[in-house]
Amino acid sequence: MSTSRLAIRLYTYRGYSAPWRVSIMLKLKQLHYQSFFVNLPKGEQLSNMYSQINPLQIVPTLEINGELLHESMAIAEYLEEEFPRNKLFPKSPLEKSIVRSMCETVNSGIHPYHASRLYRYIHNYVNDINRQEISEPFLERGFTALNTLVEKHGGDYAFGNQVTIADAFIYPAFRGDDVSYLVSVDKYPALKRVVENLDKLPEFAYEHPDSQG
Amino acid sequence: MQQKLRLYTYFRSSTSQRIRIILNLKEIDYEPKFINLLQGEHKSENHSQELPNQAVPALHLQDGTILIESMAIAEYLEEIYPEKKLLPQDPVLKAKVRGFCELINSGMHPYQNLIMFEWIEKYVEKFDRVEFVQNMLKSEFQTLEKLLLQNHGKYSFGDEITLADCFLVPQVMGAIARFKLDISLFPTIQEVYNNLKDLPSFYKAQPDQQPDFK
């Protein structure tokens, strides 16, 4: 797909892990995009205004040529097929499967367990428990599984020595504002090495939420 | 001689059911290996090599390579066995099918699995799993309904079976059986679900048709 007259718009909240994955992907693919900021801590994704844009009330959403795409993994697969340069996935189906399993360990094995809606519901049942106490056992389980995968298959980065989509999922899983207060990368040596290497890459640079206009 | 494809599965695991459906649809021969989640077999030392993330499904390839995560397994099977396609050609539609699967995979299922309940039940004496899941997943079922309204034909996306159907049926079936989902609240989900559930590939994959069903 030619990028000369492409309109790409990312509905996002800077610093939050799920939309951060998508902005990393776009930067790795060297795609220019506009950001529209949706105040997630204030629940703005549920507002009437945002619902007009996206009736699914979900962030991140990628608008590309008028189409609305949601779910970071679906977006990653789309971008990989439509913009083949700067590959995010390795070549063989087996290697791709390993990289996908790393992404999914974050996507469904870690991220759901620090979602604000989980806290809301748990607090209906248990009053005197904080977010750390709620998330900790689940995050430990998920990050341990992820560490094992990266120990086995990682090098400088999560999968070997080239940056892949797995890094775009793993990095915000530690550095995202919605999770960094709950977990320390020091507990996971293989992941620590990868995250510290990614700290050096401009495509992974943190964008402060206050920088949103 | 290389071993057969092996699927580690539990009859009631909806994530395993997704893969059972896909293997049926693609007519892939496999050997099931039953893991009793209720008895904690997934956590035991005996199975630590076979289940690297202590979960089902796990797919062991003929050469012994182990694949985990249902979405990753589904994509692998789609690439290796392309004859009965489960993803549309159009890139945007393909993204929508994947988005639908991921809504279920990461937006819904994690809140109804055993690790969630086992944890909560340590803190809450008379924990009502049904009420919890209904509250947690109400708006997600509404989102699925909206997506199906926009995209459905006979099935979730048009008139061809896709991965979306393979994820939808186990999610809805489990929600009805275990969490008292009133599917009549979601008429499009109901219509598509009813078109799918009795198709042989889907029927043969359902929990009460499994050899380890109790």
Describe this structure as you would to a colleague.
By secondary structure, chain A is of the alpha+beta class. Helices cover 47% and strands 8% of the residues of chain A. Chain B folds into 2 domains: 5-84, Glutaredoxin (3-Layer(aba) Sandwich); 91-201, Glutathione S-transferase Yfyf (Class Pi), Chain A, domain 2, CATH 1.20.1050. Chain B has a 4-stranded mixed beta sheet, with helices on one face. Classes of the chains: A alpha+beta (213), B alpha+beta (214). Chains A and B meet through β4, α3, α4, α5 and α6 of A and α2, α3, α4 and α5 of B.
Features:
heterodimer, A: 213 residues, alpha+beta, Glutathione S-transferase Yfyf (Class Pi), Chain A, domain 2, 2 domains, four-stranded mixed β-sheet, 8 helices, 8% strand, B: 214 residues
**How do the strands of the widest beta sheet of chain A line up side by side?**
2-1-3-4
CATH level 3 topology of the largest domain in chain B: Glutathione S-transferase Yfyf (Class Pi), Chain A, domain 2
> Biggest interface pair, residues each?
A-B, 46 and 45 residues
Give the helix tally of chain A. Answer: 8
Proportion of beta-strand residues of chain A: 5-15%
Protein name (chain A): Maleylacetoacetate isomerase
GO biological process, one term (chain A): glutathione metabolic process
Domain GST C-terminal (chain A): 92-213
GO molecular function, one term (chain A): maleylacetoacetate isomerase activity
